[in-house]
Amino acid sequence: MTNILIKRHIMLYRQNAYKYLLLFVILALSVVLFTSLYIHNKEKNLLDSKYKESAKNTKEFIKNLIENKQNATLAIAISLAKDDRLYSYMKNRTYKNFEYEKISSQMREYTKFKNVWIQIIDKNGTSIYRSWTKKTNDNLLFRKDLNKMFKKQDITTSISVGKFDLSIKARTPIFDDGKFLGALEVITHFNSISKRLKKRGIDAIIAVDKKYKSRLTFPLTTNFIDDYYISNLDASKKFINYLKQNNINNYFNIKDYKIENTLFITSYELRDDNGGHLASIISFKDKNSIDIQAIKDYKRQMIMLVVILLIILVFIFTLYVYNIDSKNINRLNSRLKKHIKQLKIQENKKQSILDSQSSIMVITDGVNIINANKQLLKFFKDIRTLQEFREKYVCVCTQFIDMQDNSYIFDKDYDGKNWAEYILSKPHKNFKAAMKNHYGSIRHFSVKVSKGEYDDYIIVTLADISSEIEQKQQLKYLNNNLEKLVNKKTLELKKLNESLEDKIKDEIFKSQEKDRLLFQQSKITAIAETLNNIAHQWRQPLSTISTATSGMQLQKEMKILDDETFNDSCETILRSTKTLSKTIDNFSNFFVQEKQKIEFKLSDSIHETLKFLNSTFEEKNIIIDYSMDKDIKIYGYKQEFQQSLLSIFDNAIYAVCTNKDIKNRIISIEIKNNCLSIRDSGDGIDEEDLDKVLEPYFTKKHQAFGIGMGLYMVQELLVKHMKYEIEVKNSTFSYNNKEYYGALIFINFN
């Protein structure tokens, strides 16, 4: 019977044990499932908060860089506008005296400003001077920021897209006795901003809105993604290709951030004064560079808490099941001791995890400290244990310093809440705290607070951010020093300019005197060449007159001069006299001074010039090869244009006459596709001299043949006055199935 009762008791015990075991398994699985979901969601929310904070910091840093660049640009503009010579040059329209390209060069050499442009705009909105290019006389009132400044006539700054680039601009008005003359504009670029971002591990792509593509007629870079112009010179080809492959439109107006593969992507939108979109600064950085160690530590802590909870459940289950059988009490006690030992081990592991953190971690109820890691004891070196800390300081908050800053927390009443509760009530705000270490130095900490779900304990993490605070302070100090340096260098530049102005005036006087003498010599040379041509063309008619006269005189002496011979000789003399007179008229008409522009044919000018030089060609055995597909009509001063052709042919004649083989003296003239090409067989121009031939006073001729003003005057007339293009180079050409090599003068009338 006893055995039956024992068996029944054992069976009942086993049945109950199975029920409780099943209940425990369900409960344990539920705990694991719900806590896993909670940890996952909490980790996701913390990561999202961390990434949003990183994106916000990146955008704030970009904003500060732009504001600093705008302030520096404005400081330069105000300094340059104080130069009295600026008003004098604007008033007297002596725009050629502006020398801001030298100031830009000096700033590039002596300051951190490597690419500063300076522009002068007249009262009509026309650019009359640019320090970086010779392109001027174009109207800029299509720019809204410039239009606004011209209406206000006050100092302004802006970010806008011009014909050359997206840039930061600062303008100051120019007045003379209250009369508005125009504006001085200083232009800086975004390249230094992208370089500063690069130093922080951020690659930037500055993409200008595609609606400005047609405006960018002279872009600084050649990089485009679809119709979006890439403004920064150091833009990474890797990320340019990345945006091309993934459609750049997906990366504008990113609300907070994007995570793609290992890339952390944000965008900063640049807008004009009216809110219109100018460009986007798309930034890329390695996602792994963002510090999420605190989130990983929090996840490990939560997992440890779940493990501890499961151990407690196991303990409760074991205690409840085995208390039915008295024989198992000792075994239960033994297991209980074992579990308690395991709990102590887990507690030690938990403390080890806390101690392994690089930041100070404190568990508190908001007033009294419950637990902390060893980093707290390392910071407060005057205490050795947590108990000593409790006795001396009670709470870590008692050591917080009031920094007179709303972002810094300290021990006070926040509308009925203590400091920890106040932080918990504002989860999206970043709080900091300041404490003095044992050396008396103030250290700054980022404060993060979280609260346990199953208790009222608060976990406080204090991450040392002193180096970041010091960097910000150093940046502010450097900005202040930079402003002082700019002012100092501006004053030095002003003194240097005054000294240079005196030297330049002296050099100009000497240069003018030299020019006067050289032009005088040029006139004498031209007169000599003209007289030589007249003499050459007069030689044959005079010879004819001399022959006819001497013939009549001889026949008269021999008394054989009849009326018919006399009349024939007189007619010959009259024809020769008319030829002499016509030659004088041709030369007079060729050099006549014109008072107004006319429309004339290119072929007519060439024929008249060749006719003028015909005797020279015959004397020097020069062959003229002339061809034309379609004539060209030109509007301008015909005689000045023919004198330019005369200078070109004069150089060609001199070149081919160096060829001793008179059969190879060829000058080729071709009119094709609205262009004029004049080639000679004179063996060409030395390569090192090609860039100099259009400069004044440059010549390879002997002094008796010229002073180097011919081609320079051709360039002055054709390029500066008539707005055509001229190019000088060496080339080959064919004549009668034979190749010749020499100089080419190419004039483009398009």
Automatic annotation (TrEMBL):
Q: What is this protein called?
A: histidine kinase
Query: From which source organism is this entry?
Result: Malaciobacter canalis
Q: Does the keyword Endoplasmic reticulum apply?
A: no
Domain of life where this protein originates: Bacteria
Name any one Pfam family assigned in the record.
dCache_3
InterPro entries hit by this protein: BphY/WalK/GraS-like (IPR050351), dCache_3 (IPR029150), HATPase_C_sf (IPR036890), HATPase_dom (IPR003594), His_kinase_dom (IPR005467), HisK_dim/P_dom (IPR003661), HisK_dim/P_sf (IPR036097), Sensor-like_sf (IPR029151)
Q: Which residues form a coiled coil?
A: 468-506
Where would you find the membrane-spanning parts of this chain? 20-40, 302-322
Q: Any keyword Heme?
A: no
Q: What class of enzyme is it?
A: transferase
Keywords, in A-Z order: ATP-binding, Coiled coil, Kinase, Membrane, Nucleotide-binding, Transferase, Transmembrane, Transmembrane helix, Two-component regulatory system
Reactions performed catalytically:
ATP + protein L-histidine = ADP + protein N-phospho-L-histidine
Q: Where is the Histidine kinase domain?
A: 533-750
Query: Which EC numbers characterise this protein's activity in its record?
Result: 2.7.13.3
Q: What is the lineage of its organism?
A: Bacteria, Pseudomonadati, Campylobacterota, Epsilonproteobacteria, Campylobacterales
